[in-house]
Design brief:
This protein has about 120 residues and is mostly helical. Helices cover about 65% and strands about 0% of the residues.
Length: about 120
Amino acid sequence: MNSNFSDDQKIWGMFAHLSAFFFFFVPLGNILGPLAIWLVKKKEFPFVEDQGKEALNFQLSFTLYAFIAALLIPVFIGIGLLIAVAIVDLVFTIVAGIKAKDGIYYRYPFTLTVIK
């Protein structure tokens, strides 16, 4: 656990990751949630600036992967890929939220760096 971060930074870092679950309420909420938290809190909290970008890059990457999987549905591998993408997204997002709550810089695997 990293004690260099305030509880506020850790909580907002966690929210930056878990806000991706806005997808269940708003189309593209998985991108809009992390984007909103990153834009609002990046100047106030350096930890949130880093973790918000990480969450945003991951969600952008996995939205692209889901789109590609959806295009492959007619080829019969798309449904399996789409399910796999959804499960991986869910699991890694939860893990990232837990790590951020502990004040640990989390790096997602399989992420394209869109925002630097």
